[in-house]
Amino acid sequence: MQKLMMTAVLLVSAVGITAAQNDPKSTPTASCSFQDGKQIAVRYNNQTSTGQDLPSGKVWTPGGQPMLLFTQAPLVADNRDIPTGAYSMYIVREKEDWTLVVNKNVDAGSKYDRHLDVVRMNMLIGQLSQPQKEFTVYFGHTEPKQCNMRIYYGKNGTWAEFKEK
Known about the structure:
Blueprint: H1 2-21, E1 29-33, E2 39-43, E3 59-60, E4 67-71, E5 75-77, E6 80-82, E7 85-93, E8 98-103, E9 117-143, E10 146-164
Antiparallel strand pairs: 1-2, 2-4, 3-7, 4-7, 5-6, 5-10, 7-8, 8-9, 9-10
C-alpha cells in the first residue's frame, strides 16, 4: 500500500511539472481591452537571446514557437478582416522592415503554411536607444476601437495596428 501511495505521489508530481512547463500562466502575455470590454491578447515565448539574428526573408518565431493571438472581437489589420478566435503569428524580417504574419493554424508543433495566412502586414520599425534584453510584446490602447501592438527585440522597436471591427 505504501508503495502504491509513493507511486501515485510521484506520478502526480511529474504531471504537475509537465503542466507547469506548458502552463499559459508562466508564458508572457500582452493584452489590450477595447472600450466595449472585449480583449485581444498575445502569448509569446521570450526565451530568445538578443544576439540572435533574425533570418532575412523567412518566417521567424521567438523562442522557436509562434506567438499566439487571441481575440474576443473581430479585428481589422492592414485593411484585412481577422474574425474572432485564435491565430498563430510569425515575423518576417526584411532589410528595411518587418512583416507580421497572422495565420489560422494554431496546432502545437505544426509547420508554418503560407496558404493559411489571414493577413501579412508591414510593421513600422524604429530604433531603441537601449537594446531590449528579451523579446517583448506590449499593447497600447490608442483609441476606443484600436490597440497597437509593439514588439521590442534588441535595438528594434516595431508596431502594428489592430482595430475592432
